[in-house]
């Protein structure tokens, strides 16, 4: 097994043996090796002629070359991984605006910038150089940036601590006030008033009990009266039908001649056909006899 790191091995696999760069449009040969499309075009100018693979020297024919899409995808991954590692190696600093590696340094602003920043209005007229060329200046900026971040963290922590200490101070002051607060002497209550209050306290449950008993008594009395209610048939009205047991009354659908009893009941009707007869008996009611 190779002693090289997986990253190095991946890079080697993604590199063209002819141009020694990452493959661009890789093509697979009969022998199984790969070349960039432009490298093949450069080596084999005549498509009819056989040529040797630059890696294993096997004789291969140009007409048999095919695009290797899987390798093309792998090259993209290797390229992205390389970028990411470079950003991490440079202290993890990348452009906060474009999330790209800070490869350039703006001499006018004295800050590192990414390739996208370089094309922006802000820096287009500035003197921009590769970051490697201003290593010292970049290192200074890097230190300052780290210090700035640390300072922001410390300031945020300080604000938090100040708030917490203020809260603690408030609690301490409140406790101090409580400690100094003297309870006033309780008001002296006259002994007569005290006895009176105790008496009321004693009598209240007894009164409650009496009220409950009285309520029960009233309820049972009403129930008994309802059960013993008896209407007098002699006082019945012309539109009234009395039940056989003389306990219930309903409105009849036929007019019945009234007796001469002046106490007979009359139920007035407002429906068509019956007319409305009002006389002194309208307000009369049954005489109800209560048998107890
Ligand atoms: Zn190549
Ligand atoms: Zn080969
Ligand atoms: Zn940028
Ligand atoms: Zn600039």
From TrEMBL:
Signal peptide: none annotated. InterPro entries: TRIM/RBCC, Znf_B-box, Znf_RING, Znf_RING/FYVE/PHD, Znf_RING_CS. It comes from the Eukaryota. Keywords: Metal-binding, Zinc, Zinc-finger. GO terms for molecular function: zinc ion binding. Residues 90-131 form the B box-type domain. Residues 16-57 form the RING-type domain. Transmembrane segments: none annotated. The keyword Zinc-finger applies. This is Uncharacterized protein. The gene is LOC100557938.
């Amino acid at each position: 097994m190779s002693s090289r790191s997986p990253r190095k091995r991946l890079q080697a696999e993604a590199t063209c043996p002819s141009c020694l760069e990452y493959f661009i449009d890789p093509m697979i040969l009969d022998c199984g090796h790969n070349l960039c499309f432009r490298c093949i075009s450069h080596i084999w100018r005549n498509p009819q002629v056989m040529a040797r693979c630059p890696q294993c020297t096997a004789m291969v024919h140009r007409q048999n070359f095919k695009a290797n899409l899987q390798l093309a995808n792998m090259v993209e991954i290797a390229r992205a991984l390389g970028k990411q590692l470079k950003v991490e190696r440079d202290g993890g600093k990348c452009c906060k605006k474009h999330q790209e590696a800070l490869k350039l340094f703006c001499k006018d602003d004295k800050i590192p910038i990414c390739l996208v920043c370089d094309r922006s209005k802000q820096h287009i007229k500035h003197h921009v150089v590769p970051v490697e060329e201003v290593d010292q200046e970049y290192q200074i900026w890097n230190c300052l940036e780290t210090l700035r971040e640390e300072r922001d963290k410390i300031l945020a922590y300080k604000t938090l601590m100040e708030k917490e200490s203020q809260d603690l101070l408030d609690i301490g002051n409140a406790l101090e006030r409580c400690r100094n607060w003297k309870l006033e002497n309780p008001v002296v209550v006259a002994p007569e008033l005290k006895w009176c209050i105790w008496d009321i306290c004693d009598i209240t449950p007894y009164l409650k009990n009496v009220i409950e008993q009285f309520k029960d008594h009233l309820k049972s009395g009403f129930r008994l009266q309802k059960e013993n209610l008896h209407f007098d048939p002699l006082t019945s009205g012309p539109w009234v039908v009395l039940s056989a047991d003389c306990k219930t009354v309903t409105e009849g659908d036929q007019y019945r001649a009234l007796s001469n009893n002046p106490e007979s009941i009359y139920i007035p009707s407002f429906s068509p056909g019956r007319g409305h007869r009002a006389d002194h008996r309208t307000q009369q009611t049954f005489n109800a006899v209560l048998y107890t």
